[in-house]
User: Which sequence fits this backbone?
């Protein structure tokens, strides 16, 4: 059987998983069962990823004000499913959100979680990977 190649024009489950796991020191876990992938950094989750009826869905951490703005801007951004709805959004990967915006949301979620790590862990990551890899310029604009 041929390997499924994600459509480069549409963010789907597979493309999201590749991008999430491309973040520095990201690890994949399945604490909620085999249907929900949970990318983590230093044991803290920065996303969840699953599929419903063949459509990918991600939960991403977000600044509370930005979370509301994104929900108002995109029909496919909803309050975080099974999460603290103040700090988490669910992003439906239905091709209605530009890829760059999805990546910005992922980067922002990752950066928020890295910033919440213990100082020693943060400094080690910053030394190993550099601050720009951990806190992309796009994420820093949302501080």
Assistant:
């Amino acid at each position: 059987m041929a390997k499924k190649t994600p459509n480069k024009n549409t963010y789907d489950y597979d493309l999201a998983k590749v991008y999430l796991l491309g973040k520095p020191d990201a690890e994949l876990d399945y604490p909620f069962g085999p249907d929900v992938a949970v990318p983590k950094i230093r044991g803290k989750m920065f996303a969840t990823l699953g599929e419903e009826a063949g459509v990918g869905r991600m939960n991403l951490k977000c600044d509370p004000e930005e979370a509301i703005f994104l929900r108002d801007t995109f029909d496919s951004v909803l309050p975080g499913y099974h999460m603290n709805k103040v700090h988490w959004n669910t992003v439906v990967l239905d091709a209605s959100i530009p890829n760059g915006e999805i990546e910005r949301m992922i980067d922002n979620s990752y950066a928020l979680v890295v910033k919440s790590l213990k100082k020693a862990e943060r400094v080690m990551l910053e030394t190993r990977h550099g601050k720009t890899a951990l806190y992309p310029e796009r994420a820093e604009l949302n501080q």
The first helix runs from residue 13 to 21. Helices lie at 13-21, 64-73, 99-115, 119-129, 131-134, 137-140. The chain has six helices and seven strands. Residues 13 and 56 are 5 Å apart (CA to CA).
